[in-house]
Records
---
Amino acid sequence: MTDSAARPDDGRTDHGPPVVEAVDITKRYGSTLALDSAGIMIRPGETHALVGRNGAGKSTLVGILTGLQEPDGGRVAFDGHPAPPLADRDAWRRRVACVYQKSTVIPTLSVAENLFLNRHARGRDRLIRWRTVRREAERLLREWSVDADVDQPAGTLTVEERQFVEIARALSFGARFIILDEPTAQLDAGGIGRLFARIRDLQQQGVTFLFISHHLQEIYEICDTVTVFRDARHIRTAAVADVTPAELVAAMTGEEAGAGPSTDRPAPAGDAPELLTVDGLVTAAGAEASFRVRAGEVVGLAGGGGSGKVDVAETIVGLRRPWAGAVRLAGRVLRPGSVRDALDAGIGLVPQDRHRQGLVPMLSVAENITMTVPGKLRRRGFVAPARRDAFAGRSIADLGIKTTGPGQPVSGLSGGNQQKVVMGRALASDPKLLVLITPTAGVDVRSKQNLLAVVDRVSAAGTGVLIVSDELDDLRGCDRVLVMFAGRVVREMSRGWRDADLVAAMEGVQAEHV
Amino acid sequence: SDGKGDAGGGGKPLVGVDYPRSDTDFWNAYIKYVPPSARELGVELKTTNSQNDIAALISNIQTFISQNVKGVVMAPQDTAAIAPSLQQLADRKIPVVTIDTRPDTGNVFMVVRADNRAYGTKACQFLGTKLGGKGKVIMFQGGLDSINGRDRTESFNECMKQNYPGITVFGEATEWKGDLAASKFQTRLASDPDIKGVYMQSSFALAGTLQVLKQRNLQFPPSDPRHVFVVSNDGIPEELKDIKEGLIDATVSQPADQFATYGLYYVKAAIDGKTFAPGPTDHGSTIVQVRDGLLEDQLAAPLVTADGATVAGQPTVRYDDKALWGNAS
Amino acid sequence: MSDTLVSTGAPAPTDRPTARRRMPALARLRDLVLVPAIVVIAVVGQLVNPVFLQSDNLINILQSMSAIAILVLAETLVLVTGKMDLSLESTFGLAPGVAAWLVVDPAITHGLGVDLLAGAWGVPVTLLVGALVGAFNGLLIVRYGLNGFIVTLGMLIVLRGLLTGISGGSTFFGLPPSMSYLGSASWVGVPVSIWLCLVAFAVAVVVLGFTAGGRALYAIGGNVDAARAAGIRTDRILFLTLVTASVLAALAGLIQAGRLASIPSGQGDGAIFQVFAAAVIGGVSLNGGKGSMVGAFTGVLLLFMIVNVLTLAGVPAQWTNFLNGAVILVALVLSRITGGKAQE
Amino acid sequence: MSDTLVSTGAPAPTDRPTARRRMPALARLRDLVLVPAIVVIAVVGQLVNPVFLQSDNLINILQSMSAIAILVLAETLVLVTGKMDLSLESTFGLAPGVAAWLVVDPAITHGLGVDLLAGAWGVPVTLLVGALVGAFNGLLIVRYGLNGFIVTLGMLIVLRGLLTGISGGSTFFGLPPSMSYLGSASWVGVPVSIWLCLVAFAVAVVVLGFTAGGRALYAIGGNVDAARAAGIRTDRILFLTLVTASVLAALAGLIQAGRLASIPSGQGDGAIFQVFAAAVIGGVSLNGGKGSMVGAFTGVLLLFMIVNVLTLAGVPAQWTNFLNGAVILVALVLSRITGGKAQE
Ligand SMILES: Nc1ncnc2c1ncn2[C@@H]1O[C@H](COP(=O)(O)OP(=O)(O)OP(=O)(O)O)[C@@H](O)[C@H]1O
Ligand SMILES: Nc1ncnc2c1ncn2[C@@H]1O[C@H](COP(=O)(O)OP(=O)(O)OP(=O)(O)O)[C@@H](O)[C@H]1O
Ligand SMILES: [Mg+2]
Ligand SMILES: [Mg+2]
């Protein structure tokens, strides 16, 4: 079914002027060149994929194509006509609808209002008709099978529900051209399925899409054409059918696709000591788990949205206070709800959301990496900047962080490199146990491989690793995978599991039924 | 300001004058009178403004010292806090004249002030007489942190208790703010509509008070038995006008002009090496020794009324008396 | 179409949705969170002094709060967009002050004023000065992207200094009738300023709740990038909000001037603390995107009722400030606690 | 080239690094962004009045700013963590006020004070009151998660009222020598308060730059969740910061009290505006995570130099406020513009 060649798209292209054409676009943010004479041309009716590594300039192009950003150079044309002036937001919105990568949900406003922001139903007196707005919103949410009260503030929605609000809003304009910037990054398999079904519907009606994702299989699933950006430049555009995944990766990274991390990492010794013991843990939100991780073992904790996996992991590392149960690390009982104690005991953490919990953007790479280990930098009681930079320099080298130096503020790094800084921070304390929560979310293919290679390396040195994720690629290297569903560990799968089994387990389907 | 001509020469002595604040009518009048007085007396001026901030005053005195002034005139609104600065000035043999307030400790060449306690007493006697010793009176106190305000409050209350025990006094703290005074007046009128007298400790509450009276239809000519008696304090032109129109009945004219004139006069005298002794002066006031080594020229601060008649045995001045600084153009 | 997938999708845990669904009703109630406090103060007031609930006294409370209430309304508009305008307290004094300076006759007022314009110009000039101050703030904040707190803190100092400068620190008396009308006249026994204040709040409730422009303020305050992405002309609206707020502050200053029949050069000094306290007690968030006009109104009302009760109770002068502050602090804390989420 | 992600020490693309590498140096320079302005003011001052650069006058400037400077230091600590403490201006007066109330003898001071403790207790009581105020703020802000602006706004009003209450609005004088020592004594010809202020800033520079605790303040201010996830005890540090800031404010109040040999009940009134202006001009961000002690110091210095020059220039009394405000506004705007990013 991922065979795009089988799809009847031959007749859809090459009719009339391109829906949008951007030529020679250059965009600078301070000293960063985000786009360097890059361009794209999207034909009516096609679904055009845009791929590239983190920081390649994809979202910047989206900003320019939707009139949020003014390019420093170059031009944009819709249907052969020059783009409207930036100030005329309505004209832009008539031409293109967009799901941005950054959330555009306004948390303080109700779900209904978010869906109809700036286009409320109004009466003849120009006043807003809230009843109509609410009814329309309910209809829209039902269409997307989102079970949420339209009156509640959007801030109370789950990440996934929020993403659906964004998608529902963008798709409800009736626009003929829709841009989706990593719409699937926050969705689980079920959600992605619903989105794709809807996209196919609209494709049938001749709607044009620009689709951005780091999941290459999705490109093959629904796109016709693919454009690759690398280092702010346009690299190549081709029919999806004409490029192999390996070629795509090569175009994105600028080198031949190497073999991914070897999956034949030796299993930990059978007599490896028990490292992490989770006994009868009940989280504040009600999820339950009991399991063990041995030294050198890589354990996956999988589950779909709302399965409670993140909840369990965050409780283990002390970010949340448990309801009941105990966590021990190498025999030491961790103080509930204390991150400090967990770190002291030897846990290294990559939190779920790097922007929220992982980084202090204004501080330097070095400060971020060494944040967990002030004790290692001290000389006569004071932090020695030279020592800090040297320490950070080693992490930068080990993890291959692309930075101008340890003194650069992390806000200046690209997403993948920021994620590596978070990894560096987790490793700084030479942890006995590494807890990685969705470590590769929003990270490009190559960076993903590199991060997972780090996992292999540290586990070989005897560190236990707990990977909390719903991405099969993340879990593939695990010795065991625990699958959670609805707040319980429902299955344990040892190495060599089949993808289908794991997906089924995550979706709460018994293996026998598959 | 106009100290040119022989600046730098030994002709005109350089005197530093610190203005206490520039946001009230009274002190603005004072500020206006200083330069002409200086011209008349032949002193060169350095002026600063301490914006009612005692810390700024102290710093300003430092700049005076840096600029080698020969004498200082100031009006410290906080009488406790200037002791260290007075000591410094004394060490450098720079004579000081304080205006309006008397330092709590430390000596100065002369204190030029009007007796703030007398203001309260005068207002009390006027209202007591007019009300015939009974009824209700509201008093708009200034800021609690003002020594002058507290003097006026205490003397007014004491005088009332002693001489007119039949009069009830509502004291309202207002932080020298007209809007606060107006709303407290309104509140008080709601609970006690039979208030017959108002004492405001400064003209800050003037217009608001009249407005409240007008709104509640309580503005009657002084001859009318329903008249509410209003006593203000400061002697600014607006008050004199209101007395003329029968809107208020009396005010205490603080001698803003004499504060300026005699502050500079005494400092010049000190520079010239003159000395003074207790006793009556040539300008109708009396110098008293308030404590060992501290002389005070207590300028007359007359009560101004519509008719200039004697009240409770004390003389008053008619509103249109040319001698009042508020009537000078 | 998507139903095939939904059936296998995880049903959300059972108790969460109901727990969440109760929220919106609460959110609407939040506007009225101060009503119990107001009732308590009213009861205490009545016990302290039976005058409290007489119409005379109630009108007095409303009248004394009307100018500040409009200032609170103005600040609420700005706060909802996620900005702050500290300079409103200075505009409150400066705008009518400049008008008075231009219209009053120095012959009557002992040299104050320049008598450039006829008295009828007083009101338009006041509003114009307000608009100019707002436009200047807007220019620096919206056009040049400077921090609002900083700009308006500077403006607060400058505008106050400007009023002291042109007035020489004295009080403007002898205002023309047009300028004192709003603050002193009455309609059907109720002061015009009260009508004006109530109408202003009613209009604000409708504008904020039921017009695209009003909702845009909330959107901007909630997430300015998202608002821009949704096609809201954020810069223009922010600019207009700042101008409107300053014009309202000028109007409030005019009411105050009329009430006192004069403009002291310190008019509005320190009022911004009171304004913020009222808005915040009333549930307006300092982070933008949250707050209602009804809440803001109850906030001012509560503050002025407290002062009124303290006055009627005849609390010793030196303790009034402390008691007033303590009640405000308690109200602030309670309003945040009952207002649901703590941190905002 | 740019793709060699794993290879050790990969030098990044050719032209970007040089451009970027200038950043950290710039960041350090940003601490000194006010130095040109200070030089300009000094030159202007010298032209206006040759007294300006005399050591006498310079010591005067430093001495008059020392108390406020320590207040700015305290506020900077709080601002770096992303909070605000408005109540510092009240603690500045209240803490020494309470101490004076407890130690001064009513026999000397016309009935003021209760003479409960010996004079030597003055200093410890002052600092203790500061600590208690800070702890109360901390309790409400950190423990109960209330908004710092709101809590400290309420506290500002209450604490000021409390001082008025115990002093009856009068000034405390007749302070014991221990309480006036810091503000009045001199060492090697330079007032102790100047030494104290300079030492306090030097210590703060070291603490903020070179201790784990100090860096934690920046981490908390930059992203509190990330700091917590990195094992920083954010609550404890925030609490300690608020307590430290209040103790410093008490200390500053003590210096002021010693300098004035008395404590007016309005001590510190309105100082918070000046404190914020100084911190912000000095490059401290109101959003937390940014700002240096050197910058904050230059901010206060600039403000006090301006006032000094205006004083020496003999500007007409009613225009000093305006000019002072205008210079502050210009400085605020310039410091934001030269400080690089506009919106913060
Ligand atoms: N507002 C901004 N200010 C400064 N730099 C920016 C800004 N937006 C983007 N950049 C920089 O521009 C470059 C391109 O960013 P962009 O967001 O377009 O990448 P992307 O391809 O969308 O990456 P990702 O896959 O991580 O979403 C990056 O180096 C980024 O750091
Ligand atoms: N009842 C609840 N109340 C508050 N927060 C909750 C509740 N349930 C879950 N959360 C939080 O929401 C976030 C996501 O929830 P959860 O851990 O249950 O899902 P997940 O398995 O991580 O799924 P996803 O892949 O969508 O992140 C977590 O931070 C979790 O702690
Ligand atoms: Mg992107
Ligand atoms: Mg989740």
Note: The longest strand of chain B covers residues 135-141.
---
Amino acid sequence: MGTARYIARRLIFSLCLILGVSVILFAMINAIGNPVEVLLAERPGITEEMIQAVTEYYGLNGSVTDRYFTWIWALLRLDFGTSIIYNLPVSEMLVTYGLETLKIQVPAILIALLVSVLISVLAATRQYSRVDFGVIASAMVGHSMPGFLLGIVLILIFSYSLGILPSYGAYSTRNPLWGSDVADALWHMVLPVGMLVFFNCATLTLLLRSSLVDVLRQDFITAARASGLPERRVVFGHALRNAFIPVLTYLGILFGLMLGTAPVTETVFTWPGLGALYIMAIQQLDYPLIMGATMVITVMLVTATLLTDIAYVAIDPRIRLG
Amino acid sequence: MLSTLAPASSPPVVAAPAPLLQVRDLRVHFHTREGVVRAVDGVDYHVNPAETLGIVGESGSGKTVSSLATLRLVPPPARMAGGQILFEGQDLLAKKPAEMAALRGRRIAMIFQNPATSLNPIYSIGAQLGEILMWHEKASRAEADARVVELLGLVGISDPGARLRQFPHELSGGMKQRVGIARALLCNPSLVLADEPTTALDVTIQAQILELLADLQKRFRMSMVLVTHDMGVVARMASRITVMYAGRVCESADAATIFNAPRHPYTRALLESMPRIDHSYTGAARRPLPTIAGRPPNLLNPPPGCRFHDRCPEAAPECRRLLPLETPVGPGHTVSCLKRGSEGIAA
Amino acid sequence: MSALLEVDGLSKYYPVLERRLFRASKQTEIRAVDGVSFSVAEGETLGLVGESGCGKTTTARSILNLVEPSDGAVRFQGEDIVPVFRGGDRARILAIRRSLQYVFQDPYLSLNPRWTIGETLKEPLRVHRPEAPETWDARIGELLRMVGLEPHHAWRYPHEFSGGQRQRVGIARALAIEPRLLILDEPVSSLDVSVRAQILNLLAELQDRLGLAYLYISHDLSSVRYISTHVAVMYLGKLVEIGPVDDIFTRPRHHYTRALLSAIPVPSPGAAQDRIVLQGEVPSAMRRPTGCPFHPRCAAALPVCAQSEPLLMPPSAPHRAACHNPL
Amino acid sequence: MSDATLPAIAAPRQRAPGIWRQSWYRFRRNRAGLIGLAMVTLVVLVALLAPFAAPFAPDDTSAMLRGAARRAPSALHWLGTDRNGYDVFTRMIYGARTALAVGLGAMIIASVIGVIIGGIAGYAGGMVDELLMRFAEFFMVIPVFVVILAVVRLFGIVVVGTWLEDIPNLNLMTIIVLLGCFEWPPIARMARAEFLRLRNSEFVEAAHCIGSSRRDILLRHILPNAMPPLIVLVALGIGGAILAETMVSFLGFGDPRAVSWGQSLYFNYEALKVAPWAVLSPGAALFVTVLGFNLLADGLTDAFNPRTRQ
């Protein structure tokens, strides 16, 4: 009962969030007036008639509320409209580009999680030692290193100096590497994923190590040791799971941060993902594309938050009381 | 094989038994930024088979640290700085970590002060207790569960089968402490260290827990070290008492002697300064209580000589210089005080 | 002796909203304090005892309006102060605060860590003696001496003091504006045994010298026996017994009081103490038993105990117990 | 009178070291914090002394006319020149001004909003608290960076032809205000937690008992005690805001008239292969600044929290 209620509450809140963002977004876009008018105003040599025609085509004549509900209703039917610039269905573009984004983001989070767990345990069980100090120092440096800057340095080293990794794109333009499409795609992923892993790993390690150090000081850890459990079991079984509870919140935020800064990452690596698409959409003022991409990023983010909320229930029995 | 609940196999003791646990010149130092804190600084005591030793002292006297040291679990930045801990004749400080871990929970177990923090909040009672049996006794899940249920019943938890699936936060403080006691007794240890087991509990619950501990101790003929600051609790529970002050032992004797004929000025002052519920203080009877002036010393920089000299009404000039050693003053009664004939060493 | 403080039917209920997903939420309430009445006379000490969660601290906080009482009257020097606090007339509230002060349990948490002792002690003077700032410093020195500290301690910060010294500062702050009644909430519980006696002596001495009345709240019965002239025992938000201190300690009439007293280990080994170990635990305040709140744990419970709630009997006697089957 | 004697004190001292000075003592022992402080001080000094420290004027493109754009570091141009003929070292130094303006400006706005909203929520409690915190949570989940990009771009269109257009560095100010408006939720949450904790703390209750006014309690008791963790958050936030501005500029949505590290990155990123110094220099400056503020925050956490490391 408690669990179901908790999840239901988070779910309802998530839906409210998405709805709220849609209202703000819509209001913002409409604050600048007729978006098509603005769009066309930036292109000289367009007549009033042309504007009129496009406005009618996109149904921009009704009142603001009418238009909002028309839009939301379309969204619910997964109809995102047609891109003005590319003249393609927005939904199709979002899926293509969105998958490219997830292709680097999801593996990056998972690898970072695994690596940071190992490093944190190594450091926290040797608190105040040189290993610990080295881990903290390098994690701090890594955490402060702006992701895109790291990407630039990686490109300089691995693409320009050593020439072993591709510096841009998700696929080779002409012939796939080694004649294999899969190998080619994987090879292109190395740099962006490596950069994201490094950045996430640094931040996660900082958090997880300090959380682990706190937990290792708790009474129940001493009690587990006093019961004669082997150290491996005490650290991985008793300490780590508890240490994850405060880190979990951050995992959701981290995923959001990665999605939020995807425009930067994807610009650095010229990656054909949602972020790059979004930049193009804004630059070109492609109204349906901006709306669609923002909503998709929001939904992904809210979903990530919701998943961490649910993970809480799985890991911490105290939540079940609500 | 799982041990049964039959009393432990050691035969009833008749004459002067060999102590089960003997602590000699134990030193535990905390290495802090400010310097070395001598939390335990040359402590001796012993525990005989099937007896309860009470270790009494105020906060900072080193009583808790010395019991953790017995299990070699002093937390960093503390370090064992010397001494011997003989358990069944073997020095625990010389054991390998794996040998030590095999003793913990099986031969020597511990009950913690705060039941709210000494159970892992994310595991069910059954999981965290059963795990210990599965590790030490290579029991199967079912065997472990059966034994846990048996012990939970033994420590007075109603409906133990249902409790297996409960989590610590679903139990009251008294219940959690009972679970803590059950955990300590899982493998039939011969020595149980109880660190302020009732301090966090209300008085009526404290009475329940003390009764339970006394009963279990008798039933299984185990030895117990009861660490507390409460003179009333040791009076009820302990057969022998060691009084600690500022990281050192002041006085050790059987319970009756400590309460009826204490020799060390600190023990005396401690007993006198407590108001008693069996005395009347109404009207003119409310005279000022005798007090111990000042406050306990900072162990970062302990006073030279006797640790108690600057609060002691009987302090003589040599007390400032010489550190008193424990000296027998009667059968089973030792005191560290220059004025009671202790030898002093310049430290 | 006239009653300085008279508490009459004081109650504090906390609403608890039991939220449910698909059904209407259920409103219940926790009765933290339920119809408590007692009085404290000039120069006397009433010890209020009970286990954690019995409502003794809530009673004190209700008297001081740190929480607003749900029901009942608190008459201080003959005036019901509950409506005064509710009315919000600052001058009248200050007049009450001046005579009614509180000393907190934790001497560390009750002092602002960023203020020197002098600044802490100046606060009550700033509020209550704003007309004569030139007298403040002298008064602070006087207060510090009164509680056994030195005037130059005014320049120090709380973290430089030991627990006992901090508690002295807490007492000095309460005394700054010459109150008539001090409410002492577990003032020695967090202190070491050897320091406890120092603070108890100080409290006794100040009472004799300044003619203060105390409401002394504690679960530590030995200190209650030392400091109190009268004792009131609480269980699950209700007063179960009240009377002169020696009567309560030597001839308790309520079964709970007797069990509570026998639960205290006496520091004499082998003392012939008839130990009554209560079974079970105090029920949650949300699931309060009907009738006498103590009956499920009481060895002498009668059928009537589960049905009707006993009143404090005999009325207007100094020693009263709320029990259908008193000892 | 009890006969307790206090430990002898040699002489009555004047005011003992207060909590702030103590924090400084603890901070001084934290090497990471000190390094952070040194880095931040360096950035601040460079920003203040930019006209004296920089070898060229920030808008000096004379190298372009000499045909010396995109030149590698030399005795004349210590860190080389970029594709517009700017001296990279000069632009790096002047960029510190923009960076600090962004960091401080955004965090001042965020702190004011955060402390007010968090303070009200924590002190009022109940429904108000619930609503305000849900509001904060809402702000924490929306994709801030993406929204900022959109707003900056659209706002740039809206102002065309209005009086707003004449405000110097309007674009930069928009970014600062937006960052401030989006960075307040963590501060609000912390302020709420602190106000809640302090409101129920014993020394505040003691002040109630004494009869202190509500205003005194808020301003003299609660606010000063709530400061330390908020200061840590603000230090972290300054680094974060500088980073965010750089990213916005890097994507080409920054203020073309501002001399900022992000602008340098934006203009020179395409030439990364031929003139990496023009990209790496502002990048390094950004890294030093962000690291400095992060280390400073780390040191402050320790300094304000005596229990963390003993």
Note: The domain at 3-255 of chain C is CATH 3.40.50.300 (Rossmann fold).
